[in-house]
Amino acid sequence: MGAPSSSRFRRPKAGEDERSPNLFVANCGPAVGVSYEAIGSVFSAFGDVKGIYAADDSGARVIVSYFDEGSAQAAFNSLHSRPCPDLANRFLHISYSVLEDSPATHHITSSVPVSLVASELNIPGLFLLQDFVSAKEEEELLAAVDSRPWNNLSKRRVQHYGYEFCYDIRNVNTKQCLGELPSFVSSIVERVSSFPNLDDSTSVALDQLTVNEYPPGVGLSPHIDTHSAFEGLIFSLSLAGPCIMEFRRYLEGSWLPNSTPGMNMAVENPDDNSSVLRRAIYLPPRSMLLLSGEARYAWNHYIPHHKIDMVNDTVIRRASRRVSFTFRKVREGPCRCEFPQYCDSQK
Q1: How much is the pLDDT for 154?
Q2: Dihedral sign, CA of 7, 212, 126, 254?
Q3: Helix, coil or strand: residue 155
């Protein structure tokens, strides 16, 4: 869901009407294992939800914004300080929040420096190859998907091949195969097998493709692809337009990454001891991103909901569309990765 900056929300001041269409919800978010899709499913039962936004960088607090105060009040009365069965019986701590006006330039500022190469991010398992396809191949791939039917989501359009990804459960139904991957991506899949950053012993057998079309201003909520749904290699090809992708590592317990803060990382340490590592990279059209190892299993990836991006000192306007081809291998058994704190198979 599209998100303005969380800094535009605040608590009502003395003398202001406390009620508003916006709710501040604590103990809720990706850092505590609750996806934005799950949050939307719960809160949409009380009315039409305009958006769900990160309240801060903790990953454990969100803003749920409705179109009307009545829906917000109904959700508050039903969910505040009570266990929510649809969110693993978590007790949600809810208060009203007010949306403030902000300068127009706020939308193109970023607290995280943006890198042009993956090696500067120092995230193990993250790789980016620019110009993975030619301009002619890009045109042919876009024509191929545009000749096929799209499925409409709330903010973007998608196509699924091999297996359908079910957004309500964030997983795939392995008993319902849609068939082989389409012939128009055969050369891409073949080329992926010789990706220079793969270990010689790594077997690449991709059988699932999701095509996403993002209009300007539409991004992607922070998430880790479900461990039990897909194997350890995720390839994402960017076409038609650029974007910034941000990576967030929520630090829990005693497990800490081996890397140390670098030039493209921000570390937040609020008073409640929650913390997050943030890094960002610029994805140009025709580039291929690989998530593997730690990058795939432990880092949330996120596309800011912007129409304009600031890449270091350059302002880059989003194109009329951005189309991504995400290739994955459906997992047939439980995940046994080295990151159990982020793994649904090992919880």
Answers
A1: 80
A2: positive
A3: coil
At 15-29, the pLDDT tens digits run: 555 678 889 999 988
* Sign of the CA dihedral running 82, 86, 92, 97: negative
Q: For 76, which DSSP code?
A: H
Which one, of 134, 151, 34, 37, lies nearest residue 84 by Cα? 34
What token pair was written down for 288? 């291929």
Residues of the chain with pLDDT under 70: 1-18, 100-111, 199-203, 252-274
Q: Which two tokens stand for residue 162?
A: 């091999």
Whether the Cβ atoms of residue 286 and residue 128 lie closer than 8 Å to each other: no
Please name the residues in contact with 71: beta carbons below 8 A apart, sequence gap of 6 or more: 21, 46, 47, 48, 49
Closest CA to 281 of 103, 112, 106, 115: 115
Q: Which residue has the tokens 């790789």?
A: 127
Locate tokens 């309500």: which residue? 168
Cα–Cα distance, 280 to 265 (Å, whole number): 8
